[in-house]
């Protein structure tokens, strides 16, 4: 994977979802970091190779 490929941070509390998105994004040429929580995501987003721009999509499920 090229060092200049876009970097994506995938955040989800479900390990299977993180793995699915990781695989799909890497297959499409992205570098991927994963996090299981918002707190972990903040730490992973820091540093010299952190994304310059961030988009967030959230989904909530009713657990009734």
Model description:
Residues 38-64 are annotated as: Disordered. This is Response regulator receiver domain-containing protein. Residues 7-64 form the Response regulatory domain. InterPro entries: CheY-like_superfamily, Sig_transdc_resp-reg_receiver. Residues 55-64 have a biased composition (Polar residues). With 64 residues, the protein is an alpha+beta fold. The chain has a domain at 7-44. The protein contains two helices and two strands, in the order βαβα. It has helices spanning 15-27, 38-44, and strands at 7-11, 31-35. Strands 1-2 form a two-stranded parallel sheet. Helix 1 (15-27) links the parallel strand 1 (7-11) and strand 2. The model has no long low-confidence stretch (mean pLDDT 82).
Radius of gyration: 13 Å
Strand order of the largest sheet: 1-2
Biggest sheet statistics: 2 strands, parallel
Helix-strand sequence: EHEH
Would you tell me the structural class of the helices and strands? alpha+beta
Strand content: 15-25%
Q: Return residue spans where pLDDT drops below 50 for at least 5 consecutive residues.
A: none
Mean pLDDT: 82
Could you say which overall geometry the principal axes of the C-alpha atoms support?
flat
What count of helical segments does DSSP give? 2
Count of strand segments: 2
Distance between the amino and carboxyl termini:
42 Å
Share in helix: 25-40%
Region (Disordered): 38-64
Protein name: Response regulator receiver domain-containing protein
InterPro entries: CheY-like_superfamily (IPR011006), Sig_transdc_resp-reg_receiver (IPR001789)
Domain Response regulatory: 7-64
